[in-house]
Every structure is written in C-alpha cells, then in structure tokens.
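so i finally got all the pieces together for this one. its six components total, 920 residues if u count the protein bits. some of the lines might not be protein, just check the labels. i wanna see the whole assembly predicted at once instead of chain by chain like last time, that was a mess tbh
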Amino acid sequence: MLPTDLPALSAHEPVNLQIYRALRQCIVNCTLLPGEAISDKEISEQFGVSRQPVRDAFIKLVGAGLIQVLPQRGTFVMKISPKRVLNGRFIREAVEVAVARNAADKISDEQLLALAANIEQQKLAAARNDTARFLALDEEFHTTLSRSIDCIEAWELIEDIKAHMDRVRYLSLGEITSLQMLIAQHAAIVHALRSRDPAMAEEAMRSHLREINLSFGPIRERNPDWFEAE
Amino acid sequence: MLPTDLPALSAHEPVNLQIYRALRQCIVNCTLLPGEAISDKEISEQFGVSRQPVRDAFIKLVGAGLIQVLPQRGTFVMKISPKRVLNGRFIREAVEVAVARNAADKISDEQLLALAANIEQQKLAAARNDTARFLALDEEFHTTLSRSIDCIEAWELIEDIKAHMDRVRYLSLGEITSLQMLIAQHAAIVHALRSRDPAMAEEAMRSHLREINLSFGPIRERNPDWFEAE
Amino acid sequence: MLPTDLPALSAHEPVNLQIYRALRQCIVNCTLLPGEAISDKEISEQFGVSRQPVRDAFIKLVGAGLIQVLPQRGTFVMKISPKRVLNGRFIREAVEVAVARNAADKISDEQLLALAANIEQQKLAAARNDTARFLALDEEFHTTLSRSIDCIEAWELIEDIKAHMDRVRYLSLGEITSLQMLIAQHAAIVHALRSRDPAMAEEAMRSHLREINLSFGPIRERNPDWFEAE
Amino acid sequence: MLPTDLPALSAHEPVNLQIYRALRQCIVNCTLLPGEAISDKEISEQFGVSRQPVRDAFIKLVGAGLIQVLPQRGTFVMKISPKRVLNGRFIREAVEVAVARNAADKISDEQLLALAANIEQQKLAAARNDTARFLALDEEFHTTLSRSIDCIEAWELIEDIKAHMDRVRYLSLGEITSLQMLIAQHAAIVHALRSRDPAMAEEAMRSHLREINLSFGPIRERNPDWFEAE
DNA sequence: GTGGTCTAGACCACC
DNA sequence: GTGGTCTAGACCACA
C-alpha cells in the first residue's frame, strides 16, 4: 500500500520521473513490501494523473529490477533475491575497490576535505540515531569517490545494485551492523586516500564492503514470502 | 535511417520488447548513426504498430544511454562519448577481472570444454573474416564466464557498457585489433582457468580488456560529428 | 460481418460447439471474408451469451487454422494462403490415393452401391444447379471411401484441409470446374473400385484431385487482400 | 499424476500455451498414463493459475485427440487406440512417402548436409543410449524433409499422428526396434535423396515407416487398461 | 461434493 | 477506450 501522504508533484519536472523516484523510494525502504501487487490505475488515481506517466515509471522500475510485470497477471514488487543481492555485492566490491585504488592517486584535496566533513556529519547522525540521514550521507560518501576519479558512470551502476542491498538494510533496521563500525571503516578509507596509498585504499574499501550486513537469516525466517524461492 | 527489411514482429512476445531489441541492434552496429534523429511516429509506421510500444522502447533505450530525448526538439541517437566509453572500459575491467579470478575456482569442466569449442569457432569465423559472427562468439565467451560463477548479473551489467564499446568497434571494422590477437587472448584466459590459477586468470583478462581497440583517433577525425563535444 | 439471421441456439448442446460450427460455416463459405476482424465480444452479444463460449470456439478455430489470434492486436479470419492450399492439396492427394488403393480391396458391395446412389444424386443436384447440395454429396462420397477401409481418421484429417480448399471454391463459384466433369471422375473411381483394381483406383483418384480447380489467378487479381502476402 | 517439478511459467508467453505443451509432453511420454483422470482444478492449483487457462489447454488437447472430456464424468487421458495408431501409421506412410519422393528432386545440398550431420548425432545418442535425445533427432530429421519441399503443413499434420505413435514407443522403451536399424534406415533415405532418385527415396521411406515398432502385444497384455476396448 | 459450463469483472497492452 | 487474457464465483447435472 502506498503511503497516504504522497509528495506533491512539482511543476516543471516530468511527471513520470517524479513518480519513478517516489515509487523507487517506497520500494527501497519497504513501504511497498516485496511481492506486493501494485496497479498503474490505482497509482495514477492517487497522484491525480493519467496512467501513461505511471506506465513510463513502471518501465524504468523494471529496468532497475525493482518490479516485475507479468503480462495478464499483474505487476508486483520484486521479491528479494538473495542471490541477486549477493552477486550485487560482489560486483559492487569489484567496482568500488577499483575506484578506491584509482582515487588514491587522483582525488583532490578539496574532495578529501569534503569526505572528512561528511564523516563528521555521519557521527552526528549516528549520535541522534537518525538512520535515514546516515544512509543519505553514506550514499554521498561513495558518490564523491566515483566523482573523484571522474567516473560518475561507476556510481550510476552501483546505485541500482545498492537499491537491492538497501532493501535488506531497511528490513533489518536495528539489527544493522553498528553505525560506529561503518563510520570507522569510512574513516579508514579516507585515511588511506589521504596517504595516497592505493593498496591500503583498496583493502579498506574491500573490508568495508565485506562487512555490510547481509545476514538475511533472521529476516528471512520471519518473512519467507518476502524472499524469492531458490 | 532504419533498414527497409525489418524483422517481422512475432506473435507471442510484447511488441515493445521486439522493437527495443531491433532499435538497439541498429544503434549498436551503427545502422542508425550517432547523432541521427529518430521519430516514434515514423518507426511506428514502419513496424505497422501504434506509437505506444515505440515510446516504451524509447524509454528503455534512454535507460541504456543509447538515445537522448530532448523535449520539444526530438529524439536522437546518442553521440559517442569517449569519456563514457573509457569509463565503461574501466568498470568492465574491474568486474570481469573479478569474474575471471573467481571462475578459476568455480568453473566446471563442461564449461571449460564449451569455452574451448567456442574458441575453435572463433578461429573459423576469423578465417572467413566473418566479423559479425566473431563478435557474437566473443559475447558468448564472456557470458559463459559470468555464468560459470553463477553471476549473470555481472554480464547483464556489462552488456549495457559493451553496447557503447561495440559502437566504436563497428565503426572501426577493419581497423580493429587483429582477430588473431583477440583469439590468442581468449585462449590465454581459458588456459589460466584450466590451470585453476586465479592470478593468471586475472592477468590474462586484464590484458585482454586493455588491448581492446578503442583508438577513436582516426574515426573521430574523419567523422567528428559522431562524437560528443567534450 | 456475421449474417443477421443467426441460427437459434439449441437447448441441450454445448453453446461453444454450436458457435464453433456456425463460425466455421461462415468462414468456409466466405460470409466472413479472409482477413476480416472478428471480436469475441461482438459475437457474444449477437448470440446473447457471454464471451467465454465464444472464446472456446475461437480456440478450436485456431486449431483448424481458420482464424488467427494476435495477442493485444485482435482476432482475424485467416487470409487464404495459396501455399497452404497447394500443400493441402498435395497432402490430400497422398492420403486419398492411398485410401483409394486400399479401398479397391476392402470396400463392401453395399458401400459400392451407396457410392453409385450418391453419384445419381450428384447428377440431380447438378441438373438443378444446386451447388451447396453437390458439395455436401461430394463430401459424403469421399467420407464413404475412408470408412470403407475403416480409417475414419483419414477423413478427419482431410476435413480441415478441405476447409481451406473450399474457401477458394466458394469464392470461385461459377468459375468452378464443371460439375459434369467432377461427376464423371467420381464415376471413374467407383468403376475402378468395382473392378477391384487398385492401380486404376489410384489413378482415377489422382487425376480427380489434380483436376480440382485451384486457379487462384482471377480471384486473386480481383481481391489481392483476401490472400496472404508471399 | 503430474510430476512435482513442474516447469516454471515464463513471463512473456500465454499461460494456456505453456500448460498445453507441458501436459502434451506428459501425455506423450506417459508420465500421465493412458486412462488416467486429470482435473482442471487440480492442475490449475499445481501451476498456481486459475482454471481458465487450463480449460483452454484442455480444448487444444481434445483437438489433438490426447484427452477425452466426458461431460459430468471427468476428463481422462485418452487410452491408446490400436486402430487409431495403426491408421495413423497408414496416413503417415502415405504422406511421408510422397514427401520423400518430392524431396528427391527439391532438397537443397545444405539440407542434405544437415541430414547427414543429424544422423551422426543420432549415432552418438545411440552410443550413449540416450533415447530421448534420439527421438528428438528423429523428429528433426523428418521435419527437415517436410521443410525441404516447402511443406511444413505435412509435418504439422504428422506431429499429431506421431504423438499417438510415440506413446507406444515410450511404453516399449527397451523393446524398441534397435536404434541401429533406425539409423541405417535414415541413412538409406539420405542416400536415396543424395542420388536424386525418387523411387528409391519412396521405397526407403516406406520400409522405414513399416519397420517402426508398434507391437502392442506384450505391453498390452501386461497393461490391458491402457488400451481402448475394441 | 465433483466436474462441466457460463457470467461478471479485473488487468495489461495497444489504439 | 478497446481487445485479449486471466480470476473469481455462480449454476446445474450427476454421483
């Protein structure tokens, strides 16, 4: 079920894009649960638009692997596929490790400062237990790395992978790996970059991405129907 | 301009998907040239369908970065962005090197045989100078590697990156790195996998992907309007 | 367009079967023209039933190759495919020649008498120029042959083939090969059977089936859109 | 009883068609035994769909003579009718002999090569005792012949006939005419075609089809309830 | 109750 | 808004 307090549609941005982002947001933070049925007609009425922009948004969501359209059956939020998440993590590690290695050479001093500032804010968010804010900062942290080697494409790619990983995170809020540990890992990465040491940067990034909480176990046992059959 | 001998639309598959594949094919092999204008209306008439499925296909092509929709201006085949291609190659290397490393442990004997058979066919294609066939075999070769570590997600990702790299390849047909060399590199990868040596597999894959001909130089000078301004 | 004077639906026979026969009849005698669009909804309203039994009838008509269902496009009366008709004639010749050959041995005297009587009635129908009646008798003639060798399956097979041949016949009513000639050929077949001469029976049947008017020429020129593109 | 490991339903193909094929397969290879009762409700539950697409599949199966619907009694897998199988063989002989005769003139050199390659694979399958693979190759062999005279209609017809013959074959696996002999007969057909000798091709095909093992004897004695009462 | 048949309504994709 | 497909539910006949 969609939240009743939908974001108002802004004027001069394509409607389909706004709907895409809204739906994506709802799916990633599990406001729309895995396996739940959604209907273009219903959504179009809730937003007060025609079905067309909703259809367009659906196509993009299919492209991101977040929904599944079964012709003549219905449209459903993709269930969480453990294999897909694990494979996603594998790919993400491959890419971000290479990014970190390169960044050790190329990152500018300004960007290093920005990363340090970001970490300070992470600490604040952690202190207030503001997980949403923390995740946003985390995202910005990694984006900055990709930007530092002038390879924004890397982040675009990872964004789709991350969406699937984040669904698990949101479901396991509270059981999540301690924010303190994540912050320490981020700091280690920045330290390696500041030392201009590619090998250390690679290693820091690798252990960071390996640490990410992927213990589906407890969540899956409580809600097996949110996960895809093997 | 679309080829006049369009593939007939099959009955039991969504029309939008069929059109997506047809257009993608035309863009990748440069039947539709970079920067060329395309129109949903015109295409819908050529296929004998309504504009809707063509619009759907356009959305997916935008997602793959192959076309660009300028509101109130028109729709255009993306010009080749050297930076995008180079960054794509960087990402691809990161992922496929990790794939190769893992495959050294996990690949089955059957799959090793399939790779060997594939290389034999590559030699045949090279002997007949059948470049299209060679590229298809190359694609199958790399797909098999991803499948061998049970991570088709890796290949799905690379497919979109590869589309941009392949446009350059098609334009530089003839100037392409000698097929013999590519075949030798493929053989080296298989050799490393058969030896179950991750480091060797990584190195073989890395040098293979670095070797790939991406010298825009001559093509770009002859046809500067196929490339994006920096 | 369906005829307005639809046959009333009888009480205790499945509705879908009655509709199947009605539609088949309309298609074979070209009341429903080749290529014409038909809709389950419209037909269901004309018969005063729901869409379901019409759908059931459609499935059977697809099985007989008389209509074509294009998902998400519509349902259409199959255009006449010259190749299909010709190939059908080829198959029919193969089967019925074998039937005739066998019948020379196995046919009973009673059945021979029935055939002779049938031919007499054909003469009457021809004299009154009652083509519909003639075609019904022709059908009975051939059915009797299949029954004579206890192989009703042969006729069931030919029935579907014949439906396509008959569409051409109905369109070329008047230009049809003279009924007299057909009657003479039937008589020749009976003569051969009565003589218990397999070779003669085979030859009589073969020349009969070769004689069948299949000159699409004039009809096709007048109505090219009733015929499938090659 | 249906196998428990049903094929997953694919997204972009009508459900009824997928179910039709699955059931047909089960009937032909006698996973569903002759005379066994099947129920649309039960099947719909096993596939996780409603009864409607199963009903659609049933209609097609009735058209192919593979199941029997007794109103108010139930739906049953057709028992094997010896007469039907024998008459089917008779019709198949008539058609395929004519096909072979024509193919001697019309078959292309490529198709002759394909047939030769097919026979080689038959030998491999026979060596591994892989009967299922052999039957698939056999099917492809005969299909190629029909295609060679541009008459796939012939094969479509035979396919339904063959389904009934194959049920007997599957039941008599092991007692089947030696694969070696069948391969030799296939080779003889190819030889005749390569010699462009219609009479020889006809004779080779005729003796091939006469040789096919259709001895109900032992099977019928052991399982009389799989066969129709005369 | 079971099984065959029919009705009404919903949804996706295309016009 | 339409057409093709699927779902859910009702009815009737037979056991």
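Chain D has a mean pLDDT of 89.
Chain D touches chain A at residues 11-12, 14-15 (CB under 8 Å).
anyway lmk what u think
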